[in-house]
Design brief:
The protein has helices at about 5-15, 45, 85-90; strands spanning about 1-5, 30-35, 35-40, 45-50, 65-70, 70, 90-95, 100-105. It has about 110 residues and is α+β, with helices and mostly antiparallel strands.
């Protein structure tokens, strides 16, 4: 997932973590509110292990190094977020170009 540059540090500061990520399960859930619905990611869904892979099971266990799966996306003055693999693997998306709408639901 990618955030605007002016929000990245504030966003990452909300996540308390150690470099070795041994306590990743104490990281907070992260929720994104779109219209009146909140879409949450659990720590095991946004913490990346040594291989920079995304593990969508609660059995995630980083050994040593890990990072959070968020990066900076700079498009000037626009406040643009990119809902990448972290989000779109958990939530199924349907795009309606005729009505300029996006539908989201739990993915199986």
């Amino acid at each position: 997932m990618a955030t605007p540059p002016n929000l990245y540090e504030k966003f990452i500061d909300l996540i308390t973590w150690q470099a070795d990520c041994q306590d990743y399960n104490t990281f907070p859930k992260i929720g994104f509110q779109i219209d009146d619905q909140t879409y949450e990611l659990d720590p095991h869904e946004y913490v990346l292990g040594e291989e920079s892979d995304i593990n969508y099971t609660e059995k995630f266990s980083p050994n040593g190094f890990c990072s959070v799966g968020f990066s900076i996306f700079d498009v000037g003055d626009l406040n643009v977020w990119i809902a990448g693999d972290l989000f779109l693997t958990k939530y199924f998306s349907i795009y309606d170009r005729d009505k300029d709408q996006v539908g989201l639901a739990w993915a199986k």
